[in-house]
Write a structure and sequence with these properties.
Blueprint lengths: L7 E5 L5 E5 L2 H4 L3 H11 L40 H10 L6 H17 L8 H10 L5 H5 L38 H21 L16 H28 L1
Antiparallel strand pairs: 1-2
GO molecular function: DNA-directed RNA polymerase activity
Family: Belongs to the eukaryotic-type primase small subunit family.
Organism: Origma solitaria
Length: 247
């Protein structure tokens, strides 16, 4: 809304990212400087940086959770020594079996600190969530006109999942782990082919050939893409009619 763009297609990457294809004519003509400015404007959290302060510790990849916590100060308030809160947490974290228990321990400490009047602790847990969980925007992909882009319906090389468009009206029902894969699509096509051969034996009248993808779980995602393209075509026809009327 702030940038005045209309035609946006959201596409799951096939792993852990989401791509936003902005297809407005004006936006496609933006310079790299304009593209970079737009991404900077939309960026709330930058990779590896907590505002102008120190970066948060890196999560332990083996444990899948926090191994340390940096407690931010409130602006204008004297900084409480981080070790006062960090060292007890670091001592307790190894005793917890997973990151869920570690997070509950952290939140409990934050709540007790707030109850004790520690204003510097008011938003510590919220900032941890913001830093670790808020989406990051890839500025290099967005600003580089010659950057390699992953098209919709391509296949992620590590997961085998198809990069599918997202239906924003049903986003709460989207499951990234249920996205079609090469293996599942091949199986569905094999099953559809077997059913088709049996029907051909029974029926003598010619039937209209159905496209193969419509026999698979990829069909609803293709329809989302088609609706997006139809919307762009309709908008372009309307713009041409408006311009011809002005002439």
């Amino acid at each position: 809304e702030d940038l005045g763009v209309r035609h946006r297609l959201w596409v799951y990457s096939g792993r852990r990212g989401v791509h936003c294809w902005v297809c407005d004519d004006a936006v496609r003509k933006w310079s790299p400087a304009l593209r970079a400015a737009a991404v900077e404007y939309l960026s709330l959290v930058k990779v590896g940086v907590w505002g102008a302060r120190d970066p948060l510790p890196t999560p332990d990849p083996d444990e899948g959770g926090l191994v340390g916590v940096w407690i931010p100060p409130d602006p204008g308030e004297a900084l409480t020594p981080p070790a006062q809160h960090r060292e007890p947490l670091q001592a307790e974290f190894p005793k917890k079996k997973d990151s869920v228990q570690r997070w509950e321990l952290l939140r409990g400490r934050m709540e007790r600190a707030r109850a004790a009047g520690g204003r510097g602790m008011c938003y510590a847990d919220w900032e941890v969530m913001l830093q670790f969980c808020f989406p990051r925007l890839d500025i290099n992909v967005s600003k580089g006109l010659g950057h390699l882009l992953k098209s919709p319906f391509s296949v992620h090389p590590k997961t085998g999942r198809v990069s599918v468009p997202l239906d924003l009206q049903r986003l709460d029902q989207f499951d990234p782990f249920a996205v079609p894969t090469i293996t599942s699509l091949c199986h569905e096509l094999d099953m559809a082919g077997s059913d088709g051969e049996q029907e051909d034996v029974r029926e003598t009248e010619p039937k209209r050939h159905m496209r193969d993808y419509k026999r698979t779980s990829l069909a609803p995602y293709v329809r989302v893409f088609e609706q997006f393209v139809e919307g762009m075509e309709s908008a372009r026809r309307g713009e041409r009619i408006r311009q011809s009327g002005e002439c």
